[in-house]
Design goal:
Chain A: Its cofactor is thiamine diphosphate. The complex is a heterodimer of chains A (about 325) and B (about 350). Chain A is of the alpha/beta class and about 325 residues long. Chain A has twelve helices and 14 strands. Chain B is of the alpha/beta class. Classes of the chains: A alpha/beta (about 325), B alpha/beta (about 350).
Chain lengths: ~325, ~350
Amino acid sequence: MAQMNMVEAINLALREEMERDPDVILLGEDVGKEGGVFRVTEGLQQRFGENRSIDTPLAESGIVGCAFGMALLGLKPVAEIQFMGFLYPAYDQIISHVGRIRNRTRGVYSAPMVIRMPYGGGIHAPEHHSESTEALLAHTPGIKVVIPSSPADARGLLKSAIRDPDPVLFLEPKRIYRAIKEEVPEGEVLVPLGKARRVREGGDLTLVAWGAMVREAQKAAEELAGQGIEAEIIDPRSISPLDEAAIVESVKKTGRCVVVHEAPRTCGLGAEISALLMEQALLYLKAPVERVSGFDTVMPLPKGEHFYLPDLRRILRGARKVLEF
Amino acid sequence: MKISDCDPLQGRRLQVLSPEGKADPELLPEFDDESLRRIFGQLLMGRLFDRHCMALQREGRLGTYAPVEGQEACQVGSVLALAKGDWVVPSFRETMAAICRGVPLETIFRYWMGSEEGSRIPRELRFLPVSIPVGSHTLHAAGMAMAIQYKGEADAVLCYFGDGATSEGDFHEALTFAGVRRAPVVFFCQNNGWAISVPRSKQCAAASLAAKGVGYGFPGIQIDGNDPFAAYLATRTALERARSGEGPTLIEAVTYRLGPHTTSDDPLRYRENAEVEKMRALEPLVRYRQFLKQRGLWSEAWENELAASHQARIEDAARRAESAPPPTPESVFDSMFAALPAHLARQRSELLDALKEG
């Protein structure tokens, strides 16, 4: 096993899957010769040729719509959208076609495809490069939405996503693309979609976080541990489908829950998880579920983004609120 | 000059200044010496401002920046053709056009330094803020032109975008709408050869981008984008067409991006340095300097003096931008709506409380 960051781990997953299955094809803006603007697809065009790592014209709807057409004929396209902020021209394809085809044709057709994209803030990027509109996707029927929070998970989840018989949107938290290194296995080690990871064990409260927010939650848990409070951290790893059982089980044990996400609050996943706990764990709750989230505002430009992103201070505040209720 | 004289379907390209700086006397616009020198001053200002942004970025004092080096002539020439009442709809590489239109240097710096204040461009300048999503703003230009038409005003709209944008669906919708409505808009494509790492040849199989106008029912014209006079003439003619109710024009200015796509990009990964070096000889400043020299309007001392005065202005603006107060937490919320809705007011005070607690 080698130490890898998330970029390297995703690259490994792509390489392994392309070697395993000649129907796996990459396409997107700058994925080929340049190896992607974040170097995630580096070296793959050299290895597999221009017909399997396709530099496309600058057209997101074109990328996703054509990937859909390829998937209809049995290929396994892995499309890259350069930043989540540029997804929206392709969103029409996703909601109007990609997510509906299996149901609409009663299973005659399906779209086994993956759409990868870096998302989220915290890297001082320009406008439209830091959004985290994950809830739009989780709200879209017929697609799965996967978000890794560590290199090993990224590799294992992406391999599962590529092998999944249905469309998967794979959101890569670019803030931690290179911030974490860990041992990443090679070969047939898959991480199943829709299964949460218990990042930390604790009995006093549950922090639910995904993507780059897992690391923030870990910082908060360390701080709380110093005060004798043990926080459990659950990373759902897929926000659609959501591992409801893992979240409910943890909150039944701790009685308190803080959901941390960097996406805007209203109609965000925090609201979904809060409703879930109302339905399935009401009598175990010792405090209302707290949401620490981004705001219902435009993501600020670099000079103001620290106000927007949940940080240690805001997570601790949320934790105190549920502990002192 | 007539647009139809330069039919892109017949492979014609408008050029007034040859790469050696020789002007076609038939086409050379009637500028006096002072105006001819002023054009050089603007080209030079663009170059120096751009280089200063690149330098500040490397020092960590400015965020990601999209350099304009090599494309100055397209922007200087086209802005020169505008009337005061015309609107400019830029993408994100129109720094030079912004400067020529009078957007304060400090404002431009503030945008790239990561502050919303950099998009606070006075409405009187009729210059929209930077548009990062590629190609989507071409529709805004079409809509603005439709509004001008509806109100019976005499203005026109000039919309800039790159070759990559012509692949986006919105570009096609913009040309469709503008063509159908005969809206007073000029679509100005700065074909700089590369959409990040993808060359023009892999962006579209058509022989020319200018010819696309024909498919939407209006003329296209291909020009030498490193020639400020060609940019001026084509834009002026297209604006006249727009104002006289004849509808839109598509201009394809063939230029070259000498620098990276942005400061986050490394062009050495996908293009040969030899190509860049070849294009350096054709870049607008070199060509225009030759032109002035041949007319006895240029001297090294004059250029040095000009550069020093531009540089002082640039550095002063950069200093002011850097010492501007940082955004307040309230600023995250307060411009979202005309009146702050209750849920945002709650989120705002929540953030303020959290910051107060420390």
